Amino acid sequence: CQPLRNSVDMTRQFNTDEHYIRELADEVVNKRQRFLGGPLVHDTDGIWTKSVYGECDGFSFGTENDELYRVPDEEKKEKALIVYASQNGTTGGTAKTFAKHLCKSLGGDTYCDLRNMSGIMAKDLAMYKRVYIVCNTSGLGRPPCDGEVFYSHVQLEAMRCQENLEDLAIGDGDEEKPLAGTSVAIAVWVDSSSPDYAKFGLGLTEELVSLGASTALKTITVDEQKVKLEQKQTFKEWESTIIEMEKERLMASGPRRRTSKTIATSAA
Q1: What are the strands, taking DSSP E only, across the chain?
Q2: Rounded Cα–Cα distance for residues 168 and 30 (Å)
Q3: Contact, 153 vs 122, CB < 8 A?
Q4: What predicted TM-score, i.e. pTM, was given to this entire model?
Q5: Of the candidates 26, 68, 23, 53, which has an alpha carbon nearest to the alpha carbon of residue 149?
Q6: Model pLDDT for residues 118-156, shown as the tens digit of each residue
Q7: Cβ atoms of 106 and 163 closer than 8 Å
Q8: In this structure, are residues 247 and 263 in contact, taking their beta carbons and an 8 Å threshold?
Q9: How far is CA 25 from CA 120, 173, 239, in A?
Q10: 83 pairs with which residues across the strands?
């Protein structure tokens, strides 16, 4: 993690440190165990093989575009970023459906950007002041298919950030962390019949906070074991709070040019 982008060419350093970064990735797998199932998960799904060792576009070394750095508050986008991640199966479309509803409730494209978690990295979150995440879990509290690469990337960046802060003797250094100035709120669909069903949602929150993000709301879990009406009510309460926060933000920012879209009251 870097306080601010500067003119120093980091390409050579990243290439030189590739082996060290791989060791950090292994340390995440061996010590932190954010994904459940230990080495079996990684060997079977190839999550770390894909995201860290270069078999897909999840993570690459030595390119400036992949560098995670602190974005000054004045350069962050005023729009909210809504991120969704779904899982294959009967509940796979749940997160996307509710994410779209939240986007519509906030005024659509005028006020927010809607992105699939499979198409973003931590550096994308740093470009926004407010990030709202709606996602499913998979199996025993693991991330959904759309979120596997993103989550492993965030884990690695969190460890690298801590290592760098310790090397620079900055201490906690919240203001210097790459996601400083970005607030997040997360809603996760879970299956409470499975052990550790909330682990992904809580783990993702913890990793983002360790990168400097603040939490706008407590992470909520929507239990798929409950009837659909109860699930909608739980999400509606979370969504309504976000809508009120967005309204207050717009009022505090003063008059602005009228548009055809306005933030509406949430409806089930």
Answers
A1: 77-85, 112-116, 128-136, 183-190, 214-215, 220-223
A2: 25
A3: yes
A4: 0.72
A5: 53
A6: 999 999 999 999 999 999 887 777 888 888 889 988 998
A7: no
A8: yes
A9: 19, 23, 35
A10: 115, 133
